[in-house]
Amino acid sequence: MVGPVARREAVGWLQTRGTSLRRACRVIGLSTATWRYQRRTNATNGAVLARLQAHAAERARFGYRRLHILLERDGLHVNHKRVHRIYRAANLQVRRRRRKRLTRAERVPLPTPSQRRERWSMDFTVDTLADGRGFRTLNIVDDFTRECVAIEVDRSLPGLRVTRVLDRLHATIGLPQAIVVDNGPEFAGRTRMASRCDSFGPASRSKMRMWKASTGSFATSA
Predict the structure, then answer these.
(1) Dihedrals phi, psi of 87, to nearest 5 degrees
(2) Which bin fits 216, alpha (ψ -120 to 50), beta or left (φ > 0)?
(3) Residue among 133, 196, 128, 134 nearest 162 (CA)
(4) Is residue 56 a contact partner of residue 43, using CB atoms and an 8 Å limit?
(5) Are 148 and 141 contacting, i.e. CB atoms less than 8 angstroms apart?
(6) What average pLDDT score do residues 211-222 get?
(7) Which of 16-20, 42-46, 186-190 has the least mean pLDDT?
């Protein structure tokens, strides 16, 4: 089905060929009144546009919904869809802020551990049971011996649970000089984990370091 815009273009093309307007409209199936129609400007739209531009200049981060509330406070009670149409036609859309990219420092490869309990790696794995319920495991591996010193299994393993596992390891076999973790949410609260390291004593606290994958460097928990 041909739309009205395409019909108007077809009538204009026939007129360039010497066809009269009435005959061209009859051939295309377009009313002559539709061809001669000129859109009338609405006084309300003009007032809405003026107030939108004024409010948008003062509040650059306001969208059309918040500007619509300001228009109602000014006494212009119009439909929000009309406000959105005028808002878009005037190109007043709020531009999305681009996320600033931080320059990361050059990554340095981790040195190979030379003895037991020099460095551990700590990460999570996710799996599902036969009934579809999910569970997580916290795995702590010695990078030198490849021994899994701890596996904690539960439906949820928050950051506080991680510190409890480290407390238990400290009481049984002791803590390493450094622990390598990723950018998971359980490891994001490094301050809370560092505060928990205060109970390990000054000797362990001065040696224990957390290596964050986001920065590629160690951060001492003291």
Answers:
(1) -60, -45
(2) left
(3) 196
(4) no
(5) yes
(6) 42
(7) 186-190
Helices (H) and strands (E) in the chain, counts: 10, 6
- Is the predicted pLDDT of residue 103 greater than 70, yes or no? no
Residues 208/178, Cβ–Cβ less than 8 Å: yes
Sign of CA pseudo-dihedral 25, 30, 34, 35: negative
- pLDDT the model gives residue 104: 67
* DSSP letter assigned to residue 181: E
Give bridge partners of residue 139 from the DSSP assignment: 123, 151
Answer for the pair 152, 211: CB distance below 8 angstroms, yes or no: no
Q: What is the DSSP string of 133-164?
A: -EEEEEEEEETTT--EEEEEEES---HHHHHH
Dihedral sign (CA 157, 158, 161, 165): positive
Residue corresponding to tokens 């320059």: 103
Six token digits for residue 54: 């004024």
Task: Give every CB contact of residue 157 below 8 A, 6+ residues apart in sequence.
Answer: 124, 136, 138, 186
Task: Please determine, for residue 2, whether its predicted confidence score (pLDDT) is greater than 80.
Answer: no
Q: Which amino acid is at 127?
A: D
Higher pLDDT, 116 or 16: 116
Cα distances (Å, whole numbers) of residue 191 to 127, 156, 186, 187: 29, 21, 12, 10
Q: What's the whole-model pTM score?
A: 0.44
Would you give the distance in Å from CA 172 to the centre of its chain? 42
